[in-house]
# Entry
Amino acid sequence: MENSKQNKTALITGATSGIGMATARHFANNNIALVLCGRRQDRLDELAKELGAYTAVHTLNFDVSDKNAVASALGSLPKSFSNIDILINNAGNAHGFDPIEEGNLEDWDAMLDINVKGLLYVSKSILPIMIKNKSGHIINIGSTAGKEVYPKGNVYCASKFAVDAINQGMRMDLHKHGVKVGAVNPGLVETEFSKVRFKGDTNRAADVYKGLEALRPEDIADIIHFVVSRPYHVNIADLVVMPTAQASNTIVNREL
Ligand code: NDP
Ligand code: 8X3
# Structure
C-alpha cells in the first residue's frame, strides 16, 4: 500500500521481533504508516506482507551500530515515508550475563554500540525532519535495568542507564523545537531477548520466565500506542511497567 500521508508515519527499530514487532502490528491496526527496521530481511518481508493489508509499509535493513549504514539507510527513504512523525528507538539486546570480572569484551562492545550508540545514530538521522516540522515524538525503550542495577547486569544495565540519561537530555534539548521525548521502561517481557542474552540457549532463556506471568510484547505495544496517541500538549516523559509478579529487578514472585 502506498503512503498517501493522511496518517502519521512511525519508524520502528528492531521491528523483526518482540516489542518492536508487536508495536508495528498495533500501529498498523491504528492506521499509522510504518518504516520497519531490522537486520533479518526475511522477517521484514513477512511483516511487510502481513501489515501491508492495513497500512503503508516500507522496510529498511541495517545494523543500528554501523553509523554509515544508518545514515545511508535513513537517507534512502522514499519521499512518501520520509516525514517521520514518531520514532520508536527499540532495537537492542543484552549480550551475556556474567559477573564483571568474567565479562566478554565483544558482548560489552555489542551492548554499548547497539543499545546506546545505535539509538543515537538513528535519532541523529531523524531529528532534522522533526525539527523542520516543529513536531515529532521520540519514544526511547529503556528498561527497569536502566533504573536499578542487578547482579551480572553490569554493562547491560549501564547501557540502559545511558538510555535513561539520553532520554532526559533529548527532552531538555528538543522541547524548544516542539519535539516530544519520552521513555517506556519495561521489566520482564517474554520475547527473544533472553535467547539472545544466553546466545541461543533456549533452556536458560525459558528459566527467566518460568513460574511467572511475564509481560507480553503486546502489553508494551499497547502502552506505546497509548503514549503516542495522547493530545499534543501531553507528554508522558518516563514510564516504568513490570509484570504484577515483579516488584524490582531482583524481587520476582514465581508462585502467583
Ligand atoms: P528481541 O530480541 O525480541 O528483539 C530485539 C530487536 O532488536 C530485534 O528486532 C532485532 O532485530 C533488533 N536488533 C538487535 N540488534 C540490532 C542491531 N545491531 N541493528 C539493528 N537491529 C537490531 O527483544 P525485545 O523485543 O525484548 O527488545 C526490544 C527492546 O526492549 C530492547 O531495547 C531491550 O533492551 C528492551 N527491553 C526488553 C525487555 C525484555 O524483558 N524483553 C525489558 C526491558 C527492555 P534484528 O536481529 O533483525 O536486527
Ligand atoms: C530487560 C529486562 O530484567 O532482563 O531489560 O534486564 S532485564
